[in-house]
Amino acid sequence: MDITSEFKFYLNKLFPMNRSLTGEQNRETLKIIKDIIPIKVHEYSSGSKVFDWVIPEEWNVVEAWVKNSKGEKVIDFNNSNLHLVSYSEPIQKKVSLEELQKKLHFLEQIPEAIPYRTSYYSKDWGFCLSYNDYIGKVINNPGDFEIFIDCNFKKGGLSIGEILIPGRNQKEILISCYICHPSMANDSLSGVLITAFLARELLKIQKDLEHSYRIVFVPETIGAIAYSYYNLEKMRKIERGLVITTCGGKGRLGYKRAKDGDDFINQMTEDVFYENGDEFLTYDFDINGSDERQYSSIGIGINCVTITKDKYYEYNYYHTSLDNLDFVLPENLKKTFDRYLQLINKLDKNIVYTNLKPYGEIMLSKYNLFSGDGGSFLPSMKLTEKEIILWLMHLCDGEMPLYMIAKKINVKLEELYAIAKKLEMENILRVELDL
Ligand code: ZN
Known about the structure:
By secondary structure, the chain is α/β, with parallel strands linked by helices. It contains 13 helices and 19 strands. It starts with a helix and ends with a strand. The structure holds zinc ion.
């Protein structure tokens, strides 16, 4: 199966599930991800204090519906898990239209869409429905409604998935996505699938990796906070992060910039778009958003970017039932997947070398460095291979990363890396690990 077909297969498989902050369906989601990559699943116990937060009780739903006075179900969780406000309390009672209306959510401006609502941290209940159904099925009912929400809260666990892929350097790159959304495809399923398949690619090329990778599947906010709490020391080894979400829509590619606007990862992400000839949108760092809000906080301090294709907040179907499998196509996922893979490839090669022969120029002819005469121009470069070697000898001072050197002498990072690697083989350059 090619990767586009695999995206399709897993989109179909994972889309219907009722994910939330916690619960069996989150565990089931992680189990399905295990078919793609060997993640480890950790459970953080309900009630545990994690920084300023407490892990909530586990929530599972059996059924939920609203019946009209004729006994017909006018809203049914079985038809769409978005119908029930996530983390609703159990309830069974008769209510008047007026009482029910206070607990209903719909969108007049997109009348066919069911909105997505949560009530994680205040005990409440509610239903979501399309405005069309509200007008057609609810408003004209002459008598009372019967409400039934069969769900339970219990002391349990908040489930997260993790895979660590060690490379040559212990310095890590974080890749994080969130698994807490029920049936919506762009937010957050697109990010879950791209993350899983990126992890699989990294496993394939593990022996060549310069960096180590920490890849996590967590419920948004509380999951990222809990994960950071339990791994704080390790998180400090993280060099940069990718928070992967809303990346499979029909609209334009874009990216949310790192908290530090001058950080190289912003430029590096744009390089990927330019190399592909993509038009792209740019979003400055903002305190609203996804888990970069946690990872970039002062105490954790990781600069993260997010490559998007229809970013959260920006598309009409955001947090509605129309964020579905008509909106997110496997081909769109493949496009964003390729951009992420290219970005990771660049991040990985951005390492630091020290020149072991710093006194004057080396006698180039002594070494086995050139396939040709060394005067040949490389495809994308204005410099000859020999000139690039001499630049590396001048700039590899044990501090300047390869990406900075590449920008300074205007060559492609990947090609510079290939030449630096040859110098390493000849013991002319030494890689600086764990700076
Ligand atoms: Zn969301």
